[in-house]
Each structure stands twice: as C-alpha cells, then as structure tokens.
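Predict structure. Chain length: 182.
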Amino acid sequence: MLARPLFTGLLCGLALVSWSCQRQEEGGETGEMPAAEAMQEVALPETAGVAVWEYLEAVDYTANWELWPDKGELYEGQEPHGVLLTTYLNSAAYEAVTGMAGSMPVGAIIVKENYMPDSTLAAITIMYKVDGYDPDNNDWYWVKRLADGTIEVEGMGAGCIACHAAQRDNDFVFTGSLSAEM
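Prediction complete.
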C-alpha cells in the first residue's frame, strides 16, 4: 500500500502530465500551469491555522492577490497590528471592497502583514469568512501567525472578535468601508 503523501504526489503528477498533454493536443504550449489556473485548482482551506497558512503559500498571495485599494505597501497602521501594514485581498474580498458590497462573501480572505517601525515583519493576521463557522460574529475565522511561523491565534480569537466587533456594521473590517453608505 502506498503511503498517503506518495499517493497524493503521484496523483498530482498525473494531473499535471494530463494537463500538459491536453495543452499540447490543443496547440498550446506545455510547461507550467499559468498562475491563474493553478490558483483555481487550490481549494479553500479548512479552519485550521496551519491549513490556512499552507493555502496562502500555495496560492502565493503576495504575488497573486490585490493590495487593499488606495493603501499600497507599508501604510500607517495602529495597534495591535503594527505601525506599518500591508493588506492583501483574495478576489472575493477585493470584489466586495471595490464593489462596495456592504459585507464580505463566504470565501473572502484578508491577509494583513504587520510590521515594526523598522519594516521588520512582526506577524501576519488573517480573516477568513467561512459559511456557518461563527454566525454570531459574521462567520469570521481568525489567524495570527508570528514572524517565526508560530500560530499564536486561530479560530474564534477572543481578542480579535472583541476589537473588530466595533466594526460589526462594516462586517468586522477596519481597513476601509465596505459600503457607500458608511
């Protein structure tokens, strides 16, 4: 019997070979799967800090996701997140922000890199909207990952919820308004 990691690796390899052959038959180029197609192949993560982080690495959020509109990199922040911040949005979250949807849809992920005054990364905080996860708090799943890789908070982070509840009318989001009415 094959070990699970070996079996999974073989399945992934077969899928890539199949994709490459199909592209060649269609007259397309072979090689690596385009980033957009590869990201679509990665399912949203389970509600576990490690799974969320592995997902973010797999989709390469810093290269493939949008920055919060009009914020850029290393914008001025506030405690508890850090004096400098960079906020990334997956496509679901980005569309909600730019479309002034009023709230984030299920599957929205907001990644906030938290930096010290000297631009050293201190932590990465994540909001991930999961259907039915925590209805009392708009179904947000929270993660705080320190710069050394330690998951300090995951799940229904009491501190996260207590602070972000001040923005309940903006779907617990501080960075900017999700509605034209706010």
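Summary: The mean pLDDT is 84.
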